[in-house]
Amino acid sequence: MSALPAARAAVRDLLNTLGTSRRTEWRTCFSTDGSEEPTGVAPVCPDEGHEEDDGSVYDCCAEPVIECDSYPMAAYLAALLNADRGAS
Ligand SMILES: [Zn+2]
Fold first, then answer.
1. How far is ligand 1, taken at its centre, from the CA of residue 83, in Å?
2. For a FRET experiment, which of 4, 13, 26, 29 has its CA 20 to 30 Å from that of 65?
3. 42 alpha carbon to ligand 1 midpoint, in Å?
4. Domain coordinates of the chain in residue numbers?
């Protein structure tokens, strides 16, 4: 198995243990590191009161929040995870 499929499968297993599924949609979010950019990744929040463009994390939001320490990395990880949603 090449590196990417192995890494993808390992992360899928990890995220499954954290309560998400392969259908989970991801977003960038403001985590707790205090930076001014959304440097974290979290599941899209389904709560009606949580505006789609609000990148904050509230009590209504599902875990996990994955800190990436940079916005470009967070945006890339969210895009990768979303691209994998439909992958078999
Ligand atoms: Zn929320």
1. 22
2. 4
3. 10
4. 3-84
